[in-house]
Amino acid sequence: MDIIIYFIDFFVHLDKYLPAIIKSFGIWSYVIVFLVIFCETGLVVTPILPGDSLLFALGSFAALGALNIELLLILLCIAAIAGDTVNYAIGHIIGPKIFQYENNRFFKKEYLEKTHQFYEKHGGKTIIIARFMPIIRTFAPFVAGVGAMTYPKFILYNITGGIAWVCTFLLGGYFFGNIPSVKNNFTVVIIVIVIISVLPGFIEYWRQRRNIVKDKN
Questions:
Q1: CB contact set of 132 (below 8 Å; sequence gap of 6+)
Q2: pTM beyond 0.85
Q3: Using CB atoms within 10 A of its CB, is residue 107 exposed (0-12), middle (13-18) or buried (19+)?
Q4: What distance in Å separates the CA atoms of residue 65 and residue 68, rounded to the nearest whole number?
Q5: Phi, psi at 161, each rounded to 5°
Q6: What is the rounded average pLDDT for all residues in the chain?
Q7: pLDDT range class, residue 206, cuts 50, 70, 90
């Protein structure tokens, strides 16, 4: 519970924590954010790591000169693409057996099943669409690796989605993060970004539940 509270606090107060990280670690800050983005997209056990909000916050600090925007764009695009690639490979190696696992502290089977349903509806576009949806973003390449998509097709969607995702939020923070109205309400902006990111998933879940109810009636 304490870890969850810490993560929530970190998400909504990135403007407070990032300067401390940059000041303490200097050039190694790039390595840290690279690993965060890589793990958030590449490991099914770490979907709770910050993604959209972190990219936006990094962009805003780059605009202040604390970080190099060109270096961030290159490194984080690589991290996002490499993360999905590793996730795909893990899914391909483990295969359908993963669907037999039960929920535990580090793995939520329900997330995997919801992603699979989303994949069945949207097909290959899921890899691109999922980039902008927390939780599903982490599980989509894994499901693709289980057998839903050939690798050449996957890598095309992976590169397209990874670059689009990183550029959207990183440059969004770079150009808009330091506008006074945004800067003075940074916590609110981060919360709004998180809500907008998860909203499509909730809408899809609500539609599925509504269809289930209709079928029963």
A1: 52, 165, 168, 197, 200
A2: no
A3: middle
A4: 7
A5: -70, -40
A6: 77
A7: low
